[in-house]
Amino acid sequence: MPISDITAIIQWWATILFIGIITTPVTIRIFPSFFDKGYIFGKILGIVLLSYILFVLGELRLVPFSALGSYIVLYALAGLSIYSVWRNKTRCATLLKSQWKLYLVYEILFFSALFFWSFVRGHQPDVNGLEKFMDFGFVNSILRGTYFPPQ
């Protein structure tokens, strides 16, 4: 596996980690009875939340579907997250002090799974199956458009 592929995997992991950290205050509120306060669901919730907000803002033609639009929404969510953590400093600090080892194990497992599946998919990048051609067409249409719905 070339170094550029490993760099890309690390960039994806860091991006998903950043999105998960941003949504951690939301998961703490949604899953207060979980022993880890729902940290493991932060990545999924963050990707869903970011995607949905981008879709709605693109549908209303307020923010274009581009890298800049994604950064605007991402940093707005980060600002809300920082504000939420600032309001609950002591609770967040105690949670981090008590659960940091578990969070580290989660991140090691996630990175290992991401690396493994990237390795597997990198050795068979074919487009197999009938639906994948239409999926490829839909994704290209979304990437070429500025707003939603795509042409």
Describe this structure in words.
With about 150 residues, the chain is mainly alpha-helical. It contains six helices and no strands. It has helices spanning about 5-20, 25-30, 40-60, 65-85, 90-120, 130-145. Helix 1 (about 5-20) runs antiparallel to helix 5 (about 90-120). The longest helix is centred in the last third of the chain and has 34 residues, at about 90-120. The chain is globular, with a radius of gyration of 18 Å.
Produce the secondary structure layout.
Blueprint: H1 3-22, H2 24-30, H3 42-59, H4 67-87, H5 89-122, H6 131-144
Give the tags.
globular; mainly alpha; 6 helices
Shape: globular
What string, H for helix and E for strand, traces the elements in order?
HHHHHH
Number of helices: 6
Structural class: mainly alpha
Distance between the termini: 37 Å
Largest sheet: none
Low-confidence runs? none
Overall mean pLDDT stands at 88
Number of strands: 0
Summarize the amount of helix as a percent range.
over 70%
**Residue share in β-strands:** under 5%
Radius of gyration: 18 Å
Short description:
By secondary structure, the chain is mainly alpha-helical.
